[in-house]
Specification:
409 residues; alpha/beta; five-stranded parallel sheet; 7 strands; binds thiamine diphosphate; binds magnesium ion
Length: 409
């Protein structure tokens, strides 16, 4: 008699009231992982897809072959952009609780990924983000916080005119493709855009974004196949923040292997990187961007991080995970880690940090005050119903003209 068959159903390593056991997370030592030349093969990145590329050690020193060429001025800019992102998120969360915004999504704990990645791209490159990469916009100066807040408040100055959910920004001028709520579509779109850039003989590259949970969608696998077959100039970012709303990342297949390893199997050079290490994020992003720009094809990067906040303002994580999870997460807080590094090299101090925090809080508060002048959900200053007929057709069809007349707008 053979034993009856059974399935393996992954269990989360922590539940409310029980401390999470993070021993499942394979963490390499800072500086311990090799850095191959950018023209290496996917085969040569096999070990890198299971290791964890890290630059900052526990004392805040930058060590090993992945230390990037970033001067203190750039590092301070990065730190400020991460702090600004965190403050922006905190204020918008409160604005949602005050009913000024209908819905919000924070990127608390994941700030280094989008901010350092933005620093590694060029003007004209196109990102296909999800709702947790606001740092891509806040790291640059092309889009003002006021404009972003008007989108969140669905007010008269909302550049999307109420056609997108709050947080679903769209900024062609800042290389930020319209966010699609249909997850994983970002990956096929990014690969398609990258292929079009190459077909046109252009020099711009694409950067696609997906979460750990969304890699279970078939679009993820389709995108990898096309990216590999045509050597598309694209960076494929998988943000593994351990959760997909209330589903632990193991449910999407991150338990006995890594998300980075998916890339190697498809013929794509792949890296697994400490997403809470600003220097490692910048270095890996530059490595991937250089490959794409040099016709060496796609790179898949798994960014290991932790979603410190709720999934969205519609979620209550205390129902499914321990409240102190983030504090126990072995990779720490990206803002603290970069600040500690700058202090360790004598380029920052506690006093400067406190001063920067005050300045940025004042800057974000001033932006919010300005945005609220154009209305919030509370006072009903929303775009006119007429806007739904505008900017869609070059010539409005007869039936829409009739509907607009009926509405009297
Ligand atoms: C195709 C699709 N399926 C389901 C959803 C509903 N949904 C929204 S967010 C989410 C979880 C996504 O988790 P993950 O990909 O890990 O990203 P994270 O929220 O952690 O950044 C789900 C299932 C969706 N928006 N699109
Ligand atoms: Mg996730």
């Amino acid at each position: 008699m053979t034993a009856p068959l059974h399935l393996h159903v992954p269990e989360p390593s922590g539940r409310p009231g029980h401390a999470t056991d993070f021993s499942f997370l394979h963490v390499s030592g800072a500086g311990a992982v090799r850095r191959p030349p950018v023209d290496t093969s996917h085969f040569d990145t096999q070990d890198l897809a299971y290791a964890l590329i890290r630059v900052l050690d526990d004392d805040g020193r930058a060590v090993g072959p992945w230390v990037p060429d970033l001067d203190p001025v750039a590092l301070r800019r990065g730190l400020r952009a991460m702090m600004k992102t965190r403050i922006f998120d905190a204020r918008m969360l409160v604005a949602q609780r005050q009913k000024k915004v209908s819905f919000y999504m924070q990127c608390l704990g994941e700030e280094a990924i989008a901010v350092a990645h933005a620093f590694a791209l060029h003007e004209g490159d196109m990102c296909f983000p999800t709702y947790r990469q606001q740092g891509l916009l806040l790291a640059r100066d092309d889009v003002s916080m006021v404009e972003m807040m008007c989108q969140l408040m669905s007010n008269e100055r909302d550049p999307m005119k109420g056609r997108q959910l709050p947080v679903m920004y769209s900024y062609k001028r800042a290389g930020f493709f319209s966010i699609s709520g249909n997850l994983a579509t970002q990956f096929v779109q990014a690969v398609g855009w990258a292929m079009a850039s190459a077909i046109a003989g252009d020099t711009k590259i694409a950067s696609g974004w997906i979460g750990d949970g969304s890699t279970a969608e078939s679009d993820f696998h389709t995108a990898l196949t096309f990216a590999h077959v045509y050597r598309a100039p694209v960076i494929l970012n998988v943000v593994n923040n351990q959760w997909a709303i209330s589903s632990f990342q193991a449910i999407a297949g991150g338990e006995a292997t890594t998300f980075a390893a998916r890339g190697v199997g498809c013929g794509i050079a792949s890296l697994r990187v400490d997403g809470n290490d600003f220097l490692a994020v910048y270095a890996a992003s530059r490595w991937a961007a250089e490959r794409a720009r040099s016709n060496l094809g796609p790179t898949l990067i798994e960014w290991v991080t932790y979603r410190a906040g709720a999934h969205s303002t519609s979620d209550d994580p205390s129902k499914y995970r321990p409240a102190d999870d983030w504090k126990r997460f072995p990779l720490g807080d990206p803002v603290d880690r970069l600040a500690r590094h700058l202090i360790a090299i004598g380029e920052w101090s506690e006093a400067q940090h406190a001063q920067a925090q005050r300045e940025l809080e004042a800057e974000v508060a001033a932006a919010q005050k300005e945005a609220e002048r154009h209305g919030t959900l509370l006072d009903g200053h929303i775009p006119s119903a007429a806007t739904m007929f505008e900017g869609v057709y070059e010539t409005t069809p007869w039936h829409l003209r009739a509907q607009r007349q009926q509405l009297g707008v």
